[in-house]
Amino acid sequence: MAQEASYLAAFLVGLMGGVHCVGMCGGIVGALTLGLPESIRNRVGAMMPYLIAYNVGRITSYAVAGALMGGVGLIAANAAALREAQLVLQVVAGLFMVALGLYLGGWWQGLAQLERAGGVLWRRIEPLGRRLMPVKTPWQALGLGLIWGWLPCGLVYSVLVWAIAAGGMVEGALLMASFGLGTLPMLLGMGVFAATLATQVRRPLWRNLAGGLVVLFGIWTVGVAVMAPPAGTG
């Protein structure tokens, strides 16, 4: 039951983090949309398969990254006392959630350092995406989404830290997939209603609300780990 709650929470973090997605990924979605033939671009029904394929690729990459991080966490936990290691990882994940909330609210930009560090990998794989432009088929959109999933992003990196504490590769993949599904409404909306949506979610009210809720969730996550009974009790 606790694991299912984590997936729901990851979905909600993705949903609330949509205000950040507009800034980070809005330009990419716009480039994809504007690069489509006019006969497709002017019809939502014709454009939707491309946007869905693009986002399926992105979420698949998130799930792969989550599986890798979940595996790392499982190895670390097995190398130490399992329960104690999981609680430590949960505290770290909660602190990253607090940092993420501050980042989303625009109150602290420390996670931008993580994005710059991730740029090292991105510079190596980004040229692959250029070869798929302009997008002419949903399959190309899927391939571009698979690459886009590795775009340096403090929001994604924070949830990846959470995936380390998920308990294993499958759990890490499901956690990141849940998060990716949470970002889906905003990014699909960006593809269809880019200008209107971007204007609304960039308002300070939405950023502050999303950031504050994620901070509270991070504090709750740390509190659950700190208040957990010691191993062998209860």
Question: Short description, anyone?
Answer:
The chain is mostly helical and 234 residues long. The protein has ten helices and no strands.
Q: Helical stretch count?
A: 10
| Termini gap | 18 Å
Order of helices and strands: HHHHHHHHHH
- Characterize the largest beta sheet: strand count, sense, and whether it forms a barrel: none
Task: Tell me the overall shape.
Answer: globular
- The number of domains is 1
Assembly type of the shown chains? single chain
Cα gyration radius (Å): 18 Å
Total beta strands: 0
Averaged pLDDT, please?
76
Give the low-pLDDT segments: none
Assign a percent range to the helix content: over 70%
SS-based class: mainly alpha
Question: What is the beta-strand fraction?
Answer: under 5%
Pfam families: DsbD_2 (PF13386)
Domain Urease accessory protein UreH-like transmembrane: 9-220
Keywords: Membrane, Transmembrane, Transmembrane helix
InterPro entries: UreH-like_TM_dom
